[in-house]
Task: inverse folding
């Protein structure tokens, strides 16, 4: 045990709470604050260790959201969860101001899909003593799929994430997780390659987060199109991720994810 939020000696389960009108799999469902709170409460009951609150979709083509609007969506949910919930609250944002105000409101973790490239984001996290999840992506949600070209995707993602860990550490932040960013500037083949070679990413030496939940790369297989057909595939990807060394799983369906993690952990222990 390290005393770190993102490294608690077991696989952590992060439940996804999208307070957006347009997220790729559940946009509009939890947009109302009361409904979002109820959804969060339910995920905690089902076994979520962390609730990841997001107010801006990162799917290709999603509308850009100003910081004020993003805060209007997420701040009341973060504040309520921090005061009433038992799970840790993570804020999924690319904006330093949103991160800072949500940390002030009680969030403990910043999940930045742009990998803490903005110095103001690192400063907000440092000031509040937050834990940081740095994800790999290229470009923006609108351009990322044109940038999915790599010599060796795992080596390149590993080098990038190693650099982000060094940047966070040089700011005095030690509670860090890395995430290769399944689906962000990656083809289906890249995502499967990352899952197969996860131990190489784990060798960076900080916990690895994997978020395969309902993602489009699963839809390239068998009959997992449309998105509603991806529950079992998500569970299989979670199992593969934990067997490969992932220590944090980000998922929409918490009960199913918890059961998959339990099986994979039992295999690892046997
Ligand atoms: N995936 C999404 C959003 N944030 N953060 C991390 N660290 N890892 C991920 O894989 C990841 C993420 C996309 O999924 P979702 O939140 O369901 O959709 P949207 O971005 O459309 O709200």
Result:
């Amino acid at each position: 045990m390290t005393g770190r939020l993102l490294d608690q000696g077991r696989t952590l389960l992060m439940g996804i709470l999208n307070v957006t009108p347009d997220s790729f799999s559940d946009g509009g469902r939890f947009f109302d604050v009361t409904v979002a709170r109820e959804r969060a409460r339910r995920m905690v009951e089902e076994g979520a260790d962390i609730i990841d609150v997001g107010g801006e979709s990162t799917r290709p083509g999603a509308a850009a959201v100003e910081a004020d609007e993003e805060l209007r969506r997420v701040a009341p949910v973060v504040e309520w969860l921090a005061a009433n919930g038992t799970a840790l609250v993570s804020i999924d944002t690319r904006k330093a101001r949103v991160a800072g105000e949500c940390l002030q409101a009680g969030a403990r973790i910043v999940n930045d899909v742009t990998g803490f490239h903005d110095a103001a984001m690192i400063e907000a996290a440092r000031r509040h003593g937050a834990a940081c999840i740095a994800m790999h992506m290229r470009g923006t949600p609108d351009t990322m799929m044109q940038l999915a070209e790599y010599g060796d995707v795992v080596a390149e993602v590993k080098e990038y994430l190693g650099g982000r860990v060094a940047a966070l550490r040089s700011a005095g932040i030690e509670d860090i997780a890395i995430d290769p960013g399944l689906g962000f500037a990656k083809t289906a083949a890249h995502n499967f390659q990352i899952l197969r070679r996860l131990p190489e990413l784990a060798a960076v030496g900080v916990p690895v987060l994997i978020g395969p939940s309902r993602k489009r790369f699963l839809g390239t297989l068998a009959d997992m199109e449309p998105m509603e057909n991806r529950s079992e595939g998500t569970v299989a990807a979670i199992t593969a991720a934990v067997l490969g060394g992932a220590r944090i799983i980000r998922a929409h369906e918490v009960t199913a994810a918890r059961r998959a993690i339990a099986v994979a952990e039992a295999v690892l222990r046997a």
In short: The chain has a mean pLDDT of 95. The first strand starts at residue 12 and ends at 18.
